[in-house]
Structure prediction request, 208 residues.
Amino acid sequence: NGRNPVTAAIAVLFGVGAIYFTTQMILSFPLMLAPGLFDAASAPADATFAERISFTMREIAFPVQIVVFVCQFAFMLVPVIWFTRKLHTKDVATYYRYGKFPVLEILLAVIITFTMMPTTTFIANTITNWLDIPEWFANLGVEIFTAHSPMEFVWLALVIGVAPAICEEALFRGYAQRTLERRIGAKSYWVAGIIFGLFHMQPIGLIS
Prediction:
């Protein structure tokens, strides 16, 4: 209807991002303040400040994981599908180009990922050391998303693997990249990738 695809892509990215992060923060905040959850005092008496923070992160890990999982579907996937139907087409699956993919492409993606991991890890560690970021601070997220049993591993695979593979890809690749591509072509791959990195608020991991 005469709308600019680039404007639509940026507006939806910011809109859905705002909905997702705001809701996640609102839902997580009470959990952190709930009695028995955000209680670093229950850590060992001789624990350091960093150890107390790590202990607290482990205490609130499961509630936060639930919030992240629910928000991915309810406040990222649902809004982006709504915006797609409202601004573009009701045939969302076709617009996102969902369909069969050659096995060779999937295999190539896996090989490239594992091949690049040593390089990107080295770059991230170099930047961390250069900025002199404390190890305990850099590992805060690790405390929340670490499995300590086979069942926890399966649950975390759903939270940080399956859910983002559906919801984040629908937003960034299915919608944003697809919409930007209509105006700027292959450059949309770079733009979507950079915004995807910034979305995770981890500048150190932006390169990878």
